[in-house]
Structures are given as structure tokens and as C-alpha cells.
Amino acid sequence: MKFVRSVILSILFTLASASFKDSAQLKITSAKSSPRWAECGKSCVGRMQLVDVTLNNTGTSVWITSDDSLQVRIESDKLHTIQPATVKRLRPGDSAIVEIGVQNTAGVAQGSTGPATAVAQWSNNNASVALTFNATYGLPSYSPNPESVNAHESPDWFKGAKYGIFIHWGVYSVPAYGNTGKNESYAEWYWDHQINPEDPTMTYQYHLEKYGADVVYDDFIANFTVSNWDPKEWVDLINDAGARYFVPTTKHHEGFALFDMPSNVSERNSIKQVPHRDLIKELFDAAKKYQPQLHRGTYFSLPEWFNPAYSKYANGQFGVGPPRNPYTNKTVPYTGFVEVDDFLTDIQLPQMNILAYDYDTDIMWCDIGGPSLSDDFAASWLNHALQQNRQVTFNDRCGSVNGVAINGDYATPEYASTTSLSPQHWEACRGMDPFSFGYNYMTPDSDYLNASSIVTTLVDIISKNGNLLLDIGPKADGTIASIMQTNLRAAGEWIRAHGESIFDTKYWPNGPGSGNFRYTTTNDAFYIHYLVKPGDSLTVPDAVPYLPGDKVTVVGGSENGVVVDSRLVGQNLVLSIPEDISSADNYTWTFKISY
Ligand SMILES: *[C@@H]1O[C@H](CO)[C@@H](O)[C@H](O)[C@H]1NC(C)=O
Ligand SMILES: *[C@@H]1O[C@H](CO)[C@@H](O)[C@H](O)[C@H]1NC(C)=O
Ligand SMILES: *[C@@H]1O[C@H](CO)[C@@H](O)[C@H](O)[C@H]1NC(C)=O
Ligand SMILES: *[C@@H]1O[C@H](CO)[C@@H](O)[C@H](O)[C@H]1NC(C)=O
Ligand SMILES: *[C@@H]1O[C@H](CO)[C@@H](O)[C@H](O)[C@H]1NC(C)=O
Ligand SMILES: *[C@@H]1O[C@H](CO)[C@@H](O)[C@H](O)[C@H]1NC(C)=O
Ligand SMILES: *[C@@H]1O[C@H](CO)[C@@H](O)[C@H](O)[C@H]1NC(C)=O
Ligand SMILES: *[C@@H]1O[C@H](CO)[C@@H](O)[C@H](O)[C@H]1NC(C)=O
Ligand SMILES: *[C@@H]1O[C@H](CO)[C@@H](O)[C@H](O)[C@H]1NC(C)=O
């Protein structure tokens, strides 16, 4: 019965599409050279620049299908198209963003500009549209000014990675206190909370009672022993979690660095002080050895609270050094401080350069921003990375230069309760803790993000063109609370089993999905995610690119690959979900339309 119906529908469709074959109305709505590139592989020598082209099927009835052999290329006497893009499915009203690989023709300077034309051809070359645009031929080299480094973009590996683990670990992990419930706030802000008797975390009062008025923040350094730390356990956990990158705090606002540097920069670090170890090097070495596929990033706070050399930049708002005992108001030492001429030239920029060149960071995850020399930093680093054939990235918190913002590659909403689709790639960050990045001993296990919430949060974010950077707060001894490990691993099992619908996918330009539906796409398939356990049928509310006759299959869970019955009811795709399929997965249910 079903078989007969789908055959009839598909015959009707074939007739309909044949009779309108020449009337698919495509438009190229934008074409833009990017500073991103891909390895040539077998197609060319070296690397190819990527050009982004957006196509829209502006018609009302005729679909593009794989039978149309839709191909997009770039035409210019200054560029060769090495890798054209193909589009296998585009329903009326839908759009697709494709990447075309190009190289300059002989003698054309990298970074020079001029016209190029994006051309889409289909119906076996019988139909075409074109758009001429102002192109940049090849990859620019960067100059130390905001305009130049602001042209950089998130590389494709980063956009495709989707999920990273953030790690907040430092001297604040010793008190590990941020209060609880509505009074909770970031435990890594302990020092700043402590100086304000009115702070809702009541850190001022807590500290007085627990440690007494004579114990100051820097006394916690002696207890940052990392005595039970095994960096291999961390990188294995990150891999088990299903993440593709990680970003540890290399220096938070307290100014205590976990990496090495010359003594004339600072001695406020884990090498000169307890625990006398280069924690970032040990962690990165473990990652290189045991989980080399993980990209390694570095969180770095541009300002430092209470650093006497930062005071002139603090603007009265971000800590003013030197530090004082909050109970006696007496000035106390800023441990490891070395006199410098200028915070930016002698501390901030040298430290960023060390992370870039000595630690080979892939991601410079700046925090707070403020006065900086980040144009200088980024231009040299981006040029250096290109020479090494690497694509690196930096976020939107790398500050400003003489008041001009360094935009960074991506926005970083933090503990955002709502997010929305943005064509510009972005990254959400939050802790597994309800409101702390650093470990907060007061948080009950039941309040940590569970596997279900991790998965639904991730799927929601990637459907909107974002990445999720999910934070864990290890303890001062280097161990990670078992509740965080358990929940990360449970989510990781799901993420790895559904990897084809997560990693290296793209958002759907028509929207992330209504209600509990979320969508991701690839060149070969459309993925429908449902964020709660489905009932016996699912009516997809959005005009997804489903054609009668398409095969819809389950992705992940114990029924992975099983075909589900699918049909159109009016304009809506309806999936039949028997109990053996709805009980075959957890957290989020994923279905695939293959083109
Ligand atoms: C494609 O074009 C149609 C008609 O111009 C428009 O309504 C629609 O919003 C466009 N789609 C996208 C995803 O931009
Ligand atoms: C394309 O055009 C050629 C002749 O110009 C014709 O023979 C062929 O059938 C057309 N193909 C399609 C798919 O319309
Ligand atoms: C290209 O740039 C020139 C000069 O800025 C401008 O006049 C022209 O309109 C641009 N062309 C396109 C297709 O954007
Ligand atoms: C927050 O702290 C106040 C005291 O400042 C206390 O009265 C209140 O009960 C606390 N609220 C929660 C939810 O813990
Ligand atoms: C350091 O650790 C010792 C031993 O656990 C403890 O008694 C002391 O209160 C801690 N001091 C600080 C400042 O953390
Ligand atoms: C700090 O020492 C290094 C050598 O370790 C030297 O190259 C650099 O110029 C010194 N910086 C300053 C500000 O003196
Ligand atoms: C602490 O001392 C400084 C310097 O004398 C003064 O400006 C400030 O008001 C004092 N703060 C408190 C809370 O007494
Ligand atoms: C996971 O957490 C969410 C949000 O707090 C909650 O609604 C859900 O019941 C939890 N799931 C499990 C299995 O505990
Ligand atoms: C769902 O999660 C539960 C608890 O972790 C597990 O026992 C069960 O095997 C999972 N079911 C599937 C189909 O993955």
C-alpha cells in the first residue's frame, strides 16, 4: 500500500519536474572571497583559497535535485577554479551557501583585488546565472592595524568542530567558593567578590569566617598543589566527551599564569611559584601524545586585577592595584610582580606571543578586552601560522587599540539564556555548573548540566551556526568531580554516535527549526533533530527539503540506519515513529533525509 503510493507520488513528481525543467529560478545572492583556505589534496599543489557563494531558489515550484548537476564555479582571468561546488538539493524558497576552491593564475599577486564572476550552471549546463563581485585574489598577509586583522575569519576546522571543553583552573580553585542558588556567582571571581562586603556571594564574610582576616588571596597559591593531577586523564576525558578542542585558562584575572615566561615579564606563575610546574606545557604535551586530533586553545585574560602595572589602564573599573587586605585595608604584595615600564608592551603582549609561538596555540581565547596591542599580536601570529600551513583563530574579546576594536573571528555569548541564528559563526560558553566556570564546592551534583541538557544545548547551538564551549572546573589537586566526568562521558557517547549529523555540518539558512525541531545540513543530507522523545509520529513544521521517494533513516542509537516511514501531508513531512525507534535513543532523536 505504502509502496504503491510512494511510487505514484514519485512518478507524478518526475512528470511535474520534467515539464518545468527549464524554469528553476536560481539567483546568486552573494559571492565573497574569504581569507580561509583548504589543502589542495590531489586537485592542485599547495592550498586553495575558499570563495563563499550563496544561492537562492527564488522560484515557487521547481526544485533543484541531484539530476540537475548544479555546479558553481568562479570565472576570472585572475583565478582558476580548482574545486567547484555542487548542490544536490534546493527547494523553492531555500538557499545554500557553498565554498569554491580557487587559486590565482600565474603572476597574480596574493591579496590583490579586482572583479570575478560566480557562475551557477544546472540542467546539464542548459541553465545558468552569474554574479560579478569584487574579489581578493589569494590570501592576504596581515598588517598590524585593526582593519587588516579584522578581515580574518573563523577557519573551517573551527566551524566544523562544534564542541570544545573550556577549563577554568587556577588559584581560585583552592577556595573553590561561589555560594549557591540565587546567590551563586563565578567562583573564579573569588578575589573580586571578596573585596566587596555587599557582594551577594558573601565571599567577604565567608573568607573571614573560614580563613580569618590575616589570610590574603595570594596565600591560596601555596595550596595550589595539583598533587593528584594526571594530564592524560584530562585529555582522555575531553576525547570521551566527544569534543574536538579544548581551551584551558592560561591566566585568569587574578594574574596567576600557568605557563612559563622570562623573569623580566613576570614571576607570577606556576613555574616560579607553587606548584613549580609548567601546567600548560604538561597539558598540551599530553594532548599531543594521547589525543593529537584535539585542537589546543588558550584562554588569556588581557587585564589583571590589582597588578600595579595595570592600574593606569584599569579605568577605576577593573581592579586597581596594588592589592589590599580587605579587612585591614593594608597594601599587600602582588606575588611575583616584576617592575616593568608598561603593562601592555612588557607583560600583556609578551605573554600572548609566548602562547602563540612557544605553546603553538590554535585558538587565542582572550577575555575582558580593554587596552591592548592585539593588532600587532594578531598580524604577526596570523602571518606566522600561514607560513606553517596552519589556520588559527581568536575570539571577540581581544580588546581595542587606541580605542578601535579588534573584532576577532567570532562572538562569545556567555551563559546566554537565549541565542539565535547568526550567519556569522559564533561560540556559546557556559559551565556545567549552573553559574560558575571555576570549581564551586557548594554546587550539589544534581545541579550540574546532565547528559541530556549537554546534548540538547549542543544541537540547539549548532543549528544556529554556533559552537559550544562547555566548561569544567577541576579542583586544586587536579582531579575533576566525578559528576562532571559521568555527564560528559554520557553525552559524549551520544555525540560520537551521531557525529555525522553534528561535526562539519552547516546550519540551514531557512532557520534553526521550530518548537523541539532543530536542523543541520551537509551537501549530501538534511538532518532533523528532535529534542525530546517523540510520540508515534512527528510532523515536521518547517518546509524541509524532502521529496516523495526520499529515504529517511534513523541516525545513532540502537536502530541506527533503520528506514522510517515518511510521507507528505499537505506541505509537511510526517515521520512514523514506532516504539522500537523512539526507545532506541536518548536525549535527542535524529533523522536523516539523504539526497
Ligand atoms: C530566497 O528567496 C526568496 C524569494 O526571494 C525569499 O523569500 C527567501 O527568504 C530567500 N531564502 C533565504 C534562505 O534567504
Ligand atoms: C540541453 O540542451 C540540449 C541542446 O541544447 C538538449 O539536447 C538537451 O536535451 C538539454 N538538456 C536538458 C536536460 O534539458
Ligand atoms: C567594486 O568596487 C568598486 C570600487 O569600490 C565599486 O565601484 C563597484 O560598484 C564594486 N562592484 C561590485 C560588483 O560590488
Ligand atoms: C542569599 O543570601 C541572602 C543573604 O544575603 C539570604 O538571605 C538568602 O536566603 C540567600 N538566598 C539564597 C537563595 O540562598
Ligand atoms: C591550605 O591547606 C591547609 C591544609 O589543608 C589548610 O589547613 C589551610 O587552611 C589552607 N590554606 C589556604 C589559604 O587555603
Ligand atoms: C626580557 O628578557 C628577554 C631575554 O630573556 C629579553 O629578550 C627582553 O628584551 C627583556 N625585556 C625587557 C622589557 O627588558
Ligand atoms: C583604603 O585605603 C585607601 C588608601 O588610603 C583609601 O583610599 C580607601 O578609601 C581605603 N578603603 C577603605 C575601605 O577604607
Ligand atoms: C536533565 O536536566 C534537565 C534540566 O535540568 C531536566 O529537565 C531533566 O529532567 C534532567 N534529566 C535527567 C535524566 O535527569
Ligand atoms: C539511554 O541511557 C540509559 C542511561 O544512561 C542507558 O542505560 C541506555 O542504554 C540508553 N539507551 C540507548 C538506546 O542508548
TrEMBL record:
Class of this enzyme: hydrolase
Pfam families assigned: Alpha_L_fucos (PF01120)
Keyword Hydrolase recorded: yes
EC number(s) given by UniProt: 3.2.1.51
InterPro entries: FUC_metazoa-typ, GH, Glyco_hydro_29, Glyco_hydro_29_N
Region forming the signal peptide: 1-18
GO-annotated biological processes: fucose metabolic process; glycoside catabolic process
A GO term, aspect molecular function: alpha-L-fucosidase activity
PANTHER family named in the record: ALPHA-L-FUCOSIDASE, ALPHA-L-FUCOSIDASE-RELATED
Family statement: Belongs to the glycosyl hydrolase 29 family.
Protein name: alpha-L-fucosidase
